[in-house]
Structure to design on (239 residues):
């Protein structure tokens, strides 16, 4: 079943977004990969996959940029079947604790990582509605966004942003509850070597993680009753 798939934050070859793009291309889909700045890695991929890969410039922290990207894409495809909100940012003080971190960094991280996906969903909603199947929105969250399971004293901006993304997801679950054409989840993608380093203790490469998520997403596409925050192992995770 070939789909039109859009994945944000896809510019880095070692990252999850790029590898989701690669996996969906390998499976025969048309993929829209969004980036904030030019990506030589994606350009190389386009040489192999041609028209099946659309590279779209978009800054999810800027509403005008997102709306312009949506207008541009609407001239190239007539619908979207799957939207994966993967783009994220962290502050320079992400690893610092409360007393050492510059708290003024937090707002930008939350704006990009939580408000950004909402901008994208709002702007591309019209294309999602035109899917012939249940269109699916998957917001890439993290276990770090679970309030009830929080154990860290660092990663304040990242954790707050992912918690906010989880809340945004639930708000949209309520918004779309009577519309069986749109389904939405937030998902913890697992512990991944997104820096590409072999000495990273994370058990999954980005390429391995991407395949697990591809299969999970299709399994959950028409599940309107299950818990909305799930892990890559298809286990419910507490908000």
């Amino acid at each position: 079943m070939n789909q039109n798939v859009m994945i944000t934050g896809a510019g880095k070859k070692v990252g999850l977004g790029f590898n989701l793009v690669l996996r969906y291309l390998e499976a025969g889909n048309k993929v829209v990969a969004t980036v904030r700045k030019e990506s030589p890695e994606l350009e190389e991929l386009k040489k192999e996959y041609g028209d099946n890969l659309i590279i779209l410039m978009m800054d999810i922290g800027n509403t005008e940029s997102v709306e312009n990207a949506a207008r541009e894409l609407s001239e190239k495809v007539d619908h979207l079947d799957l939207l994966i909100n993967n783009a994220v940012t962290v502050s320079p003080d992400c690893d610092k604790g409360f007393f050492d971190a510059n708290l003024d960094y937090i707002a930008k991280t939350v704006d990009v990582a939580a408000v950004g996906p909402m901008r994208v969903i709002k702007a591309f909603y019209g294309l999602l509605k035109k899917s012939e199947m249940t269109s699916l929105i998957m917001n890439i969250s993290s276990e770090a966004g679970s309030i009830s399971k929080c154990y860290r004293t660092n990663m304040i901006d990242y954790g707050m942003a992912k918690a906010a993304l989880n809340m945004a997801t639930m708000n949209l679950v309520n918004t779309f509850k009577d519309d069986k054409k749109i389904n939405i989840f937030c998902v913890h993608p697992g512990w991944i070597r997104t820096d590409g380093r072999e000495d990273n203790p994370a058990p999954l490469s980005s390429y391995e993680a991407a395949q697990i998520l591809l299969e999970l997403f299709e399994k959950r596409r028409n599940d309107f009753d299950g818990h909305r925050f799930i892990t890559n192992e298809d286990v419910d995770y507490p908000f």
Observations:
- The chain has six helices and nine strands.
- Residues 4-231 form a domain with the Rossmann fold fold (CATH 3.40.50.720).
- The longest strand covers residues 182-188.
- Residues 106-129 form the longest helix (24 residues).
